[in-house]
């Protein structure tokens, strides 16, 4: 699947904390689509909003009833049957900088790697994956690990003491 990706950065702190954020988002999106939508031969459109914790909290409260900032939100359009001549509108992914930085520090991860993981995670949600039960969570996690390996990012589900470094990059 080839995707037209629109990245919007509405919090200037992103450019200070991760100046390469837009590039990372594009690479992570490509990785997620390469592993999870490899059999879809249509054009797709999606957007990513890199924002702050205040906006994340507002959106999380409004759409999920949770009055707190969250690391990633995914808003799928729900379109399924789109003629091949039109782009498939996947939806929007929203990522909150403060949560990303806090979680990365707590989990002893590079913020860039954590951002990439959250983008992959959000896009998998747009493609219909979830983690509501053990079976679907295992499928989603396997796709995340495969997409991140393509980017040279270690398995995010390995505990920090067991980390052996980035996995070998698998070329498409």
Written account of the structure:
- The protein has 172 residues and is of the alpha/beta class.
- The chain has a single domain (2-162), classed as Collagenase (Catalytic Domain) (3-Layer(aba) Sandwich).
- The chain contains six helices and four strands.
- The protein has a four-stranded mixed sheet with strand order 1-2-4-3, with helices on both faces.
- It is globular and about 35 Å long.
- Residues 163-172 have low confidence and may be disordered.
Give keywords.
172 residues, alpha/beta, Collagenase (Catalytic Domain), 18% strand, globular, disordered C terminus
Give the CATH H-level superfamily.
Answer: Metalloproteases ("zincins"), catalytic domain
| Rg estimate, integer Å | 16 Å
Give the fraction of residues assigned to helices: 40-55%
Major β-sheet strand ordering: 1-2-4-3
Number of domains: 1
Globally, the shape reads globular
Q: Which structural class do you get from the secondary structure elements?
A: alpha/beta
Task: Write the SSE topology.
Elements: E1 2-9, H1 13-17, H2 21-36, E2 43-51, H3 53-64, E3 72-76, E4 88-96, H4 97-106, H5 111-126, H6 134-150
Helix pairs in contact: 2-5, 2-6, 4-5, 5-6
């Amino acid at each position: 699947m080839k995707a037209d990706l629109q990245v919007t950065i509405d919090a200037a702190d992103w450019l200070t904390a991760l100046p390469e954020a837009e590039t990372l988002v594009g690479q992570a999106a490509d990785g997620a689509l390469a592993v999870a939508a490899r059999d879809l031969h249509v054009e797709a459109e999606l957007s990513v909003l890199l924002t702050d914790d205040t906006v994340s909290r507002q959106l999380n409260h409004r759409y999920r009833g949770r009055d707190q900032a969250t690391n990633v939100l995914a808003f799928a359009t729900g379109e399924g049957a789109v003629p091949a001549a039109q782009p498939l509108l996947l939806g929007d992914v929203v990522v909150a900088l403060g949560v990303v930085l806090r979680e990365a520090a707590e989990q002893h991860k590079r913020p860039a790697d954590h951002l990439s993981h959250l983008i992959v995670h959000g896009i998998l949600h747009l493609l219909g994956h979830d983690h509501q039960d053990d079976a679907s969570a295992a499928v989603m996690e396997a796709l995340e690990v495969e997409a991140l390996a393509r980017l040279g990012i270690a398995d995010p589900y390995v505990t920090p003491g067991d980390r052996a470094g980035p996995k070998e990059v698998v070329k498409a």
